[in-house]
Amino acid sequence: MTTIKLPATDRSPEIDFDFGANRFKMSGESYPENITEFYGPVIGQLEQHLSGLSDADLVFEFELIYFNSSSAKVLMNMFEKLDEAASRGNRITINWCHDEDDDNMQELGEEFGEDLEHAKFNLVVTSA
Amino acid sequence: MLAQRMYDFRQTLADDGIVFCYSGYITEEVLSGIGSAIKNKLTVETTDKRTARGVFSLFVEQVQNVIRYSAETEVRSDNDGGGRELRYGILTVGRSEGRYFVACANMIERRDVDRLRASLERLKDLDADALKALYKETLRGDTPQGSKGAGVGFIDIARRASNGFEFDFFDISDTRAYFAIQAYI
């Protein structure tokens, strides 16, 4: 399988992972009923994909409106994996999108971004 | 009598500024349903999205704490024959003195009181920077023992409660205590 496409629900984000093109997007709200059941397969496949890459260009786009603390843990883990893959010579760009009036989502993004040593992190303002 | 009793109950809630109250078994379905209701109500009531999102976050974290940790449980059988553990709790959302509040209460084991009290008191004493550091450290670290979630729920509550939070315990038997937490935005 070269793509994962999951539609957004009330409680889980839309996932659009194109492994062939190395374009990855997550958007919407994230407080799934069962965090492991929802993210386990997605993150598992991403990790497997990352482990086989070198000298590749990857772009990640996060456009989240709300996420709970369990999802924050998944995101933190994902960012660490991305930074690790970037330290091995892959070029990884992370675009963190937030509404212009949502300074809280901006802060949360900055908190994840400030720990990255190898991946490139951009804050992107989307108009409300 | 019935109508008066219910009216008195309504008045008791109103006197405390409670605009929303639920008491019963709290499941993920309840969280989804009430969560949408609260979100809609906040959207109508406040134009300040930051406040609305903050109240919603407090609500989600508190409800998930009840679902994970309430000691008052009942196992109900599913249609497919499996058992499902339901957890009892009370949750309220309200507004008083210009602040929103979200409160939850549930039963816990008395042996867990000291540990919970100590960790909440510690959170209360931390400033924004220290809370942020602890939050990130906890997100990165392994899930603490006895925790079924990320273990960061209370830290998240402490961070989002811009007007602070309070909590309390009340012994109800030799083994059980009642725990309540109320956070303000």
Describe this structure in words.
The complex is a heterodimer of chains A (128) and B (185). By secondary structure, chain A is an alpha/beta fold. Chain A has one domain: Rossmann fold. Helices cover 37% and strands 34% of the residues of chain A. Chain A is built from three helices and six strands, in the order E-E-E-H-E-H-E-H-E. Chain A has helices spanning 35-51, 69-87, 103-113; strands at residues 3-6, 14-18, 23-30, 57-67, 91-99, 120-126. Chain A is globular and about 35 Å long. Chain A starts with a strand and ends with a strand. In chain A, 34% of the residues are buried. The mean pLDDT of chain A is 94. With 185 residues, chain B is of the alpha+beta class. Chain B has a single domain, classed as Histidine kinase-like ATPase, C-terminal domain (Heat Shock Protein 90), CATH 3.30.565. Chain B has six helices and six strands. In chain B, strands 1, 2, 3, 4, 5 and 6 form a six-stranded antiparallel β-sheet that branches. In chain B, a hairpin with a 4-residue loop joins strand 5 (165-171) and strand 6. In chain B, helix 3 runs antiparallel to helix 6 and helix 5 (128-140) runs antiparallel to helix 6. Chains A and B meet through helix 2 and helix 3 of A and helix 2, helix 3, helix 5 and helix 6 of B.
Helix content bin of chain B: 40-55%
For the biggest sheet of chain A, the summary is: 6 strands, mixed
By DSSP (H or I, 4+ residues per run), the number of helices of chain B equals 6
Quickly name the level 1 CATH class of chain A.
Answer: Alpha Beta
Secondary structure category of chain A: alpha/beta
In CATH, what is the homologous superfamily of chain B? Histidine kinase-like ATPase, C-terminal domain
Q: Class of chain B, according to the CATH hierarchy?
A: Alpha Beta
> What is the multimeric organization of the chains shown?
heterodimer
Which fold does the CATH topology of chain B refer to? Heat Shock Protein 90
